[in-house]
Amino acid sequence: MNFSMKNLLAFTLLAAVLAGCGKKDEAADAKPEATPETKRDENIVTLTKENLQNVTLKTEPAQLSSLGMTLKAAGRVSANLNKTAKVTPTLEGRLTKLNFDLNDPVKAGDVVALIESPELLGKPLELKASIDGVIIERSATTGEQVDKSKAIYTISDPAQLWAIAEVKERDIAAVKLGQDAAFTTLAFPDEKFHGQVVLVGNQVEVGSRTVEVRIAANNADGRLKAGMFADVEIVTTILDSVLLISDSALETDGENQIVFVALDGNKFEKRVVKLGLEQSGRVQILDGVKAGENIVTDGSFILKSEMLKGQLGEE
Q1: C-alpha span between 195 and 75 (Å, rounded)
Q2: Which of 259, 255, 242 shows the shortest CA–CA distance to 296?
Q3: What is the distance between the terminal CA atoms of the chain, rounded to a whole angstrom?
């Protein structure tokens, strides 16, 4: 092999080596293509079929509705004095007969008692009921000497009662005639009785700095009794087209209030919500939920627990 042929072979080998090195460098410098991976959305909670069988979840749609702002006050149940009457004698004498007792119903015109008076020369004086109602008070006994100042009976219609609310002086400007009101009593703490404001007092009680507000309430079933204590709520303002959900849907996540929105199938999405006013178990949503979305109201704490377990598993 002559010199030129040797040089040619050497050059060819060198070129091949250099080409191979260049490919290695290119391969080393080349970045591998990213493999697409499905990253877990920490705001989505997925329940298995087994989970769904073992837990109870209830949902309600977020709805646009009206929200009544209420004023709370302590109060009491009272007889309706517009439907109450006293039975008193028109002459002095001795009470010889009582025809009715407490809780007995009477009709207007019924003879409720007899009085023997010297002025009638042996003829008994008949005391009659002036209204329909029930005997709510009896203040005399047979044989007792009575006069014109002595009330024998008090009759009242128990189907129509009053709730008297003691409203603070600073709040009285918000109370108006015709406003809806509700109240609960110690005897029926889980039931609300409803009525309307029919009178706002015209003077402030000196000691408590309160004004009496009269609420007319129906008591057709007779369960309410005069003298019961009452916790009163008067609806002073009504907000229309407010987005509302049940306050049972709310959970706390750090400094945020959250709810879970039911998605398709077994998926639920955590939403941070901005709250507005709250009244009677419902809360106004200012941001985070749209009208019509189904919100988990019962069992949201289960979803929160599943969410936290998932976060701990990732760590």
Answers
A1: 14
A2: 259
A3: 70
